[in-house]
Amino acid sequence: MKFNCPLIVVNDINISRKFYEEVLCQKIKYDFGENVVYEGDFSLQLKSHFANMIDIDEKSIKFQSNGFELYFEEDNIEAFLNKLKQNKGINYIHSLLEHPWGQRVIRFYDPDMHIIEVGESMEGVIKRFFNEGMSIDEITKRTQHPLEFVKRVLHYKLT
Fold it and tell me: What residue stretches are annotated with the VOC domain (predicted)?
């Protein structure tokens, strides 16, 4: 058996599509009207369609459970933050924060109150630390990533 993709239920497919395509720059893989699959292998499905498929009352579908998030990575987190500020109505969970391993992330809700996390790629973290003058050993310790991975990101010969 193979896991295919997460599917999130949305109230208005057009509002959600605009958010995912314009704010998060997601590209459509398949468009079935009530269901849209993105190249990142997650799907949006219209609430009424989903309720009908599983034979439940739409009112029993709850949003903002805070028990699930969609995680995205961005190489240029500063540029993304500037773009995000241009979008009015973003409901932030927290502003940019840095985890102990050095990755900077921001979390906010999509239009249906599903948690979205956008994090700096670990490759970007490693390059940032290196450009800030950290040694390879310091980067390995701080990021908790294997030495081989850090060297590969920095294009060092593995010895």
Answer: 2-121
